[in-house]
Amino acid sequence: MQGDRDRRSKAFRARLLAGAALFVCVPFAGEALAQAEPQSAPSATPPVSDGLSKGAVYVDAGSATRTGDVITADSNGGDRVYLRADGNVLRGDNLAYDLSNGAATVSGQVEAISSDGTVVYASHLETDREMKAAIAVDFATRFENGASLMAATAVRRSQNVNELNYAIFTPCPICDANGPKTPSISIQAEKVVQDEALHAVIYRNAVFRIGGFPIFYTPIFAHPDPTVERASGLLVPIINYDEGRGVSVELPYLHVVSPSEDWLISPQINSEVAPLLNLQWRRRFANGSIIARGGYTYERNFGDFDLDGDGDYESNVRYGDKEHRSYLLSHGEFDPDGPWRFGFTAERTSDKTLFDRYDVRDPYQDNGLYYGDRRRLISQIYAERQTDRSYVSVAAFSIQSLRLDNDFADTDFRDADGFKVFEDDDTLPLVAPLIDARWEPAGSVFGGRLRVKGSAVSLYRDSFIGAPILNPDIVPEVTTGLSGVDSRRITGQVEWRRVFITPNGLRIEPFVDTRVDLYSLSDLPPMMGVESDETLSRTRASGGVDLSYPLIKRTQRADLILEPVVQLSISNKADIDPRIPNEDSQAIELDESSLFRMDRFSGYDLVEGGARVTAGGRATIRWSEGRSASLFVGRSYRADDEDAFRTTIPDSTTGQLYDPTGLASSASDWVVQGSFSPSDRIRSWVHATVDGSGDVRRAEAAVDGRWGRRNLASVSYIVDRSNPLEGDQNRNYEFVQLSGQQFVYGDWGVSVSGIADLERDVITRQEVGLLFDDDCLRVEVGYRRDNTRVRASGPSDGVYVRLNLATFGGSGYGQGEMR
Q: Would the pTM of this model clear 0.90, i.e. be above it?
C-alpha cells in the first residue's frame, strides 16, 4: 500500500511540475510576460465596463461555429481562442460555450480570468457562467503575493470551496529567467480543500519539503488563505540556546478577534528554568490604538553569580527563592478630529534583569511623547494640541532604571556579596507636569516672523543626588539621609527674525531673542548661604544678525557649492545661579545646526550670555547622481569664559573640574562634519568636536557598503574623550561596531556582527552565522556571545536560529496591519 502511494506520488510530482512549467512559467516567455502579474495587465483585469450587454459574448478564434445555443471555437494552430462574457475571460486551444447557461469547456493551454482578477491555468477546464463550479486538469493558480497552488485535478464545488487532488502549495517562486525551478519551501498533499469563506487551506497527508527534500509529514494541516492579511494560527517559532535558560523555544500563536483586534500568545519553553508566558494585545479604534505586551513566570533567579565563592561568576547558577516575575510594556495613542491628540505609555518590570535573562524582544522602544533611553523604562500620559500657528503639549511621567550603578564600576558593578548593584529609582525624578508651548501670529510683525514660546516643569525626587545635577560648589561632603531636591521652572521666550536678500545674493537675517526663567526650589542641601527653599529668576536679552552667502559653480564634470555662514550676537551677561539644578542641559551635541542657535543647550537650565561670533562653512561637490562629498567646519567665540559650565571630574580627589559641554572656554570646540558617497553603493559620514589643542573630544563615523546583489557591510566608530582624568568612574568610551553578510555560493552565505570596546580591549558582543536566503526563505544559524560589562545578568553564550518564511511569517512576527 505504501509503495503504491510512493509510486503515485512520484508520478504526480513529475506530472505536476511539468504542468507548472507549462502554465505558470509561461508568463516569462515573450509576449505572454504580461500574464505574470494579471492584476496589472489589460487581459488580466477586465475593464469595469467591457461594452457587452448582459448575456452577450465576444469570441476571437481561428474558426467558430454555432449550433443552437452552443458556440464551438478552435485556434486552428494559431493564437489561442479568446472568449469574454459577463466580465470573465477564457483562453484555450479550443472551447465550447453554452449561451443558455454560460457553461464552458476549454482545452489546451487554458487560462481563465474571473471578473475579480483571479487567474487559473489548466490543460482542461469545465466551468459555469459565474465560474462558481468547475473541473480542471493540471490546475495552477498564482496569488497576488506570489504564492502558487497547483494540482493534478481540481474541482470547484461551490463559490467558496475548491478541492484539489495531488496538490502542491508554495509561497516561493517556481520560475526564474531560466524556466522552472524547485521551490525553497513547499507543501505536498494528496488532497487540499481551499475554503474561501473560512479563508483557510486544509491539507490531508501533507509533506513539507525544503529544497525538494521531505522533512515533515502530518495527516492533516491547515494555514490561512494567502489572500488573508491576518488569520489565527501558529507563527514561526523562535529557537535559542542560553547557558542560563538552556534550550529555549518560543511558540507564538496569533488569535485574531476581529479586523481591528488580536492577541499574540507566545510561551517561552526553557529546558533549565520555568517557562515565561508572553502576551500581546492589540486593538485599533476609530481614532486610535492600544498595544499592550506583558510576561509572567514563577521562578528563582539565575545566572551571573558566584555561588561557590571562588571568584568565578557563572551564568547558569540558580539562587534565591521562587518569586512572581513579570513585565508590562504598553502604549496607546488617540487622534480624534480636531487639534488635540493624546496618549500614554506604561512600562514596568518586576526584575531589573528580566529582559536580559529571558531575552525579551525589543523592550526599549520609542513610544509616546517622551522616550525612555537604553535600559530605562518610562510611564507617561500626555496630550498635544497643534494648529497651523500654535502648539502646546502637557505631559507627566516617571522612570524605572535598569542601569547598573556607576558608583560600583570599579568592582564590576557588584556589592560585597557579589550581586549587581543598580541605579536607585528614587534618584530619578517624577515629572508632573511638563508643558511646552509655541505660538506665531498669522501676519508678519515689523516685516518679520514673531514666535512666542513657553515652558513649565515640576520635578520631584525622593533621594538626594549631587553633581552633575547640582553645582559642585554647593554639594555637601556628606549626603546620606538628605532629601532629593525638588524644582519647578516657568520659562517665557519671544523671538523675532526677518530676512533680507541683497541683489548679489547675500542673505541678511537680523533677530531679537528675549527669555525669562522663574525657579522655585525645595530641599536644597543645608550649607552656608543656601536656604532650603529658594525662589529665583533670571533674564537673557539677545540681538544679532545671521549672514550667509551661498555660492555655486557648475562645470561639465561637477557642481561645487560653498555655503559660508557667520552669526554676530550680543546678550546680557549670563546669570547662572549655582543653586539652580541642571536637570535638562547635561547633554549637548554641538553640530552644524546647534552651533548657530542662541540656546545651544538641549534644555533651559544652562544659558549663555555676552557677545559672541560664530562662523562656519560647508563645501559640497556633486559629480553625478548619488555621488557627492561634503565638509562643514565651524566654531564659536565668546567674549568671556563661562566656568559655570564646568563640573567635577568623577575620579578627582581634589575637586578638579572639566568641561563636558565644549562651551566653557571663550573659544568653543571645533565642529567638523562630513559625508562622502563615491557611488550609490557606498555611503559614509563623520561628525566630530575637536578642542582648541586639536584633540578629539567626541567623534562618530560610519561607512555602509553594498556589492553584488545582496552582499553588504557596515562599520561604525564612536569615541568620547571629554573626561581628561583616568579612573574607575571615568565615562570615556571608544567602540567599533561591525555587521555584514557575504554570499559565498548561490543563496548560501555567512553573516557576522560585533561590537569591540577599545577602551577595555574586549569584544563585548559578537555573532557569527551561516545563512540561506532566497526569494521566500531566510534561515540563519549561528553562535553569539554577549560580554557587555554592564549587562545586568553577566556574560552569556548561546546558539541562535532566525527563520523568516514568505506567507507563513517570520521571527519578527509580521501579523499584518489592523484596520
A: no
